Every structure is written in structure tokens, then in C-alpha cells.
Amino acid sequence: MDLKEKLISSFFAFEEQIDLENDIHALRNNAIKFFENKGFPTKKEEDWKYTSLNSILKDDYSIFPKKEDAIEYRDIKKYCIHEIDTYQIVFVDGIYASHLSSTTHDKFDACLMSSALNSPKYKSIIDKYFNKIAPEESLTALNTAFSKEGAFIRVPKSVAAEKPVQILHFSTGNESALMLQPRNLIVVEENAQIQVIERYQSLTANAVLTNSVTEIFVEKNAIMDYYKIQNDKVSSSLIDHTHVKQESNSHCSIHTFSLGGKLTRNNLNFYQHGEHINSVLNGITILEGKQHVDHNTLVHHMQPNCESHQDYKGIFSDRSTGVFNGKVLVDKIAQKTDAFQSNNNILLDDKASINSKPQLEIFADDVKCSHGCTIGQLDQEALYYLRSRGIPIKEAKALMMFAFANKVLTGVKIPEIKHRITKQIALKIGVHLGFDL
Amino acid sequence: MLEIKNLHASVEGEAILKGINLQIKPGEVHAIMGPNGSGKSTLASVIAGNEDFEVTDGDILFERANISELAPEERAHRGIFLSFQYPVEIPGVSVTNFIKTSINQVRKARGLKDMPANEMLKKIREKAALLDMDRKFLSRSLNEGFSGGEKKRNEIFQMAMLEPKLAILDETDSGLDIDALKVVANGVNKLRGKDNSVLLITHYQRLLDYIVPDVVHVLMDGKIVKTGDKQLAKDLEERGYDWIKEEQAEKV
Predict the structure, then answer these.
(1) A396 contacts on B by Cβ (under 8 Å)
(2) A387 — contact with chain B (CB < 8 Å)?
(3) CB-based contacts of A419, cutoff 8 Å, min separation 6
């Protein structure tokens, strides 16, 4: 039985675990039908031209993992940003691990999707936001069909979250192969503020496929910073869908650090529904071996006087492959849009490759839109300059790669994250330079 | 300190240096002058180990060891420094982080531990003051958006930090106004000592008023055609290079 059939037949078993009376069950029913019709995307589709899912759909994934309590904090500590005080919503094999988590309902809500979906208290929020910006697309539909658990964050009007929230997913390898469908909803109300850190991490070398969907609503004057740390084992793959809807005068930045995993696909969509919105999309991708990362971004400028800044840097060695497909859509009404997009790549080996495809569709006539894409090797003249100062070739290359990635890191507002990413980059490159950038 | 014997070098198959012989003793300052395209900068690059140039014949001895086959970083570890004619811009690396890395890598190669942070800081401050450099300058990205003069001053700052045994200054005076020239010359003169040598490559006699050379060489068409004292530089300033060309022709 192939994975599609297995998923469809598993849906009946899934229905036995959930409340069928809940309103969202109709959504699930429609979604599974949609997935049944469409199936997994193939390279024939324009958006999937450079990423084939074949290699990750072959495993016999378990759809319903067992609850695992044996994982303790010491097993996961190194994957958490533990140097600072945060709320933590932790899942082990897709199931909430209360002994590892610290949630809140005090000033704002940082808790479980399952409790939000099932509690009358949150019904109005779920009705208003759940599945409202996730587009009709087969993998999103698949997630919606099995949507049951994930993180739920709601920051009420004029509240600034006193500490960041970490959403952490761990897989134990108890199943030889595991498929997860986490579903997150984040609502940042007017004048509210929050920082979120997200990570999917396997603890063993068993195969994991995560198909996640996160919907983020940033209301008027709200501020949201989101950090995705992707440094998983080479047996784990991630297909992520993050959709952001912003209202007037809001600011939202999403930083994606793709340093590991087997296959990673980041679908990141921004919809600007008001004026004077600022959207920031930053990415650092450093790959080796046969790793593959595909960034598929969309910024839809739907109103006048907004900004968007995209800056993605990639360093590819061995046979690793990357894709950057960045679409900027400016509606006719969206005059005075300032949209910037940049994608720079360094290929360290002959067999490494990157497909970079900027797409600008501009229907307004008074806008400032710029994009640039570069693919190259390290600058030989600069390398010689560094070496002439006594810096050996390996360290010189590392210094240049740090410098290359540094611009993207300057936008990171949590120093511990910056420190950690610099350390991970240094580790990947195999040198210690003795300072952080 | 430096002994160059019958050095031939080419770039992309074209011969540039055609038999250079040069000997610099510890503590000496030598100047190399010559018209455009005579091979001055090539000589500097070849001594520093630029791999774009191929040494086709001859040897470069530094402190009696043949360094012709050494990588640029290994030459730097032994105490050779080249002040670039066109310093490279490296966005994202601050002057301070760059010089720290450089100093500690040189120390590592010599079997020393990293320089303690407070000592490093003190030295950076001291040398920046010597070169009349603004503090803000040190946190800027290396050479990015620097004016021509700032780049050259930054080169001499690095030299002052690294305290090389042999400093090669490739057209360091070009692009400097007279005040900056004095500051740079002062930095170089501070390095002079009985164990430190300097090789100045310049078009103009002007720099030699401030850094007085012991020996002046004239380089033409890949060969040193005349060697003299500081008076030779003054003669060149007054009379140009034609009279040397004529002298050469007569010899032939």
C-alpha cells in the first residue's frame, strides 16, 4: 500500500479518536477528499519542479505513534534555547509532553491546539482564524484532515509576551518511520508582541516526515518575530507551510535557519491586508552531503504603502541542492510598495547546485521593487588577501562564509539564537574563529 | 633577510619578471621604482605568495630558507607582510575581528596561545592611535566603503599590529594626501629597527622624503637595471626614466 492509500484508509481510524461533532470536522472531511483527489505533488507542478518527494514517500510511516514518556529534559536540553527563560510547548512523537513543557494562560495563551479546538472558551477564536489563510493545496489539506495537535498561541490586545515561546517537536525513533502532521495557530492581537522559536528534531536515525501547517495572524500595530531552527538528522524531512496574515502597521519577521535534515521544503506566504505593514523574510541555508532545501516564498502586497524585505543566503557543498523560488505579487491598488528580494548563493563543490527563481508580478505603477540573485564561488582575491595575513585557507574560507551569512544574522533580536546559529555554522564549517559575529 | 636569485615569474604564460636579483639585509629599507608595467607589483605579489603568478625560475630565500613553494599564509607566519595596492573589501568582517583572527592564527602557527583579550585590545588601541584612526573605524566592515586613504591607513594599521620582519609596501603612497602620507610614514618608521626590513614599491620620490631608503633600485622590463642610494630617487624625480633607458641601450 502506498503512503497516499495508507493515509486515506487511516482517516477512518483517526475519526475514532476525535470529536466528530466539532465544527472543524467538516473541514477535515473536505480536506481528506481534496487530498484524495490531488495526491502528493509531483515535479510536473511548477511549484515542485526542483523538488521531488519520491525519496521520502517510500518509507512505511506510522501514522499513529504511541505515547512516549521515557524522554527526559536532559535528552532534549541541547536542542532548546535553554540559556533564556521561555515558555515551552513540547511534543514527543507528535503527542504533547506535559513533563517537558511550560505553558501559560496568564497574560496570554501558549498552550495546545487540542485544548483550543475542544474548549468552548476558544470557540470564537477558532471560528475566526482556523484554516482561514491556509490555501487549498494537497499537503495543506492532508494536514488539515489530520489536524488535532500542535501549538496554540494567542496574545491579547496590548499585551507584550514577557518571554518567548518555544515550540519543540521531538521524535524518539520508537517507530521505524513516523509521519507527523502538527498544526499551529498563532494570533497576535492589536498592539501585542511576541517572539516564537520553532524546532523539529529527531533523536535517532529513524525516518521522520513532518508535514506541518502554521497559521499566523498579526493584527494592527502588532509585532511578531519567528525563528525556525532547522538542523535535523539526515533521516528526517520537513514540509512546512507557514502562512502569515498581517494588518495595518504590523511588523512580522520570519527567520529560517536551514542547516540540516534530508529534505526540507519551506512554503512561506505573507498576505498584507493593511497599510504600512513591514514583512521580513530572512534565511540562511548551509548544506552538505545530499541534503536538499527548497524555499518557496510568496509576499502578496494587497494594500498601499507597505514594505517587504527578503534576504536568503545559501552555502552548498558536496552534492547538496537548494531551491529558492520567491514570488512577489503587487496588486494594482498597492501603490508605494517597497519590495526587496535578494538571494545569494555560494557553491563550494562542482556537484552542488542551486535553482534560484525570482518571480515578480507587479500590477501597480508607483512602486519600488528590486531583486537580485547571485550564484558564485568564494572570491579568490579576498581569500588571498586573508591568507596573506596569516589566516590559513580553511579559516579564511570560514571567515568569508561567516561574513556572507552575517548580514542575515544582524536581524536576529535574541542574542542567544544568534550565538547558537554562529556556533552551528562554525561547527559545520569545522573551525573555531574565537568570536561571534 | 631576503635574498632573491635570478627570479623569473609569469602570469597566464606571459613573462613579467625576467631575472631579478635582490638582497635585503636586516634593518635595511629598500625602494623599488620604475615606470608602469615594469613588474614592480608582480615582484611584491610573488614574494607574498600570490598563486596567480607562476615562478618559472630562480629562488626566493627568506632568512636563508627557500620560500618559493610556500602558501601565502605560511609566508605571513614567517613574518612577511604585504600592504596591498588595492586592498580587498570584505563585507561582514569587522576590522577588529579580522585583525584578531590574523594575529591569533599567526601565533598559532608559531606555537603560541591566543593573545589575551585585554592585551589585544590594548595593542589595537595603541596602534590605532599611532595611525590616527577613529575608534568607529575599527568596528566597520573590512575596507567596505573605505576611501582610498582609509584603505591604505588600514593596511599600515595591520602591519603595525602584526610587526612583520619584512614589510612590503606596494604603492602605499598612492591616493594619500600629504597629511595622511606623514601618518603612514610615521607608522612605517616606528616599525624600522635592526631586525625589521622594509621594501617600498613606489612611483614617486615623495614617499622617500618621509621614509628614507638605504638602497634604491630601478626596475624596468622585469629586471633591476640600476641600483643606488637615495640620491638615485631624486635623480629619477627630476629626469624621469629615459636617461636610464638610454644608458641601457648603450650597454647593449
Answers:
(1) 73
(2) yes
(3) A436
Mutate to test the interface with B, among A381, A387, A435 (most CBs of B within 10 A): A387
CA distance A282 to A265: 15
Cα gap B160→B198, rounded to integer Å: 13
Within 8 A by CB and 6+ apart from A148, the residues are A14, A17, A18, A113, A114, A117, A181, A183
The DSSP H or E segment spanning B20 is strand B14-24
Greatest Cα pair distance, chain B, in angstroms, is: 61
Cα dihedral B197, B203, B209, B210, rounded to 10, equals -50
Chain B contact for A427 (CB, 8 A cutoff): no
ipTM of the complex: 0.94
The model carries a pTM of 0.85
Nearest-angstrom CA–CA distance, A268 and A256:
10
CA distances from A262 to A198, A210, A297, A320, B170 (A): 18, 12, 20, 10, 49
pLDDT per residue over B67-119, tens digit each?
A: 999 999 999 999 999 999 999 999 888 899 899 999 999 999 999 999 999 99
How far is residue B72's CA from residue B83's CA, in Å, rounded to a whole number?
A: 13
> pLDDT tens-digit profile of A254-308?
999 999 999 999 999 999 999 999 999 999 999 999 999 999 999 999 999 999 9
How far B94 CA sits from the closest chain A CA (Å)? 9
Q: What are the residues facing A370 on neighbouring strands?
A: A340
Q: At what angle do helices A393-409 and A380-387 cross, to 10 degrees?
A: 120
List the grid coordinates of B182. 606623514
| CA–CA distance, A295 with A241 (Å, rounded to integer) | 11
On chain A, the residues whose CB falls within 8 A of the CB of B73 are 387-388, 390-393, 396
Interhelix angle A138-145/A24-38, nearest 10 degrees: 140
Instruction: For residue A387, give the nearest of B72, B93, B114 by CB distance.
Output: B72
Q: Do A437 and B84 touch (CB under 8 A)?
A: no
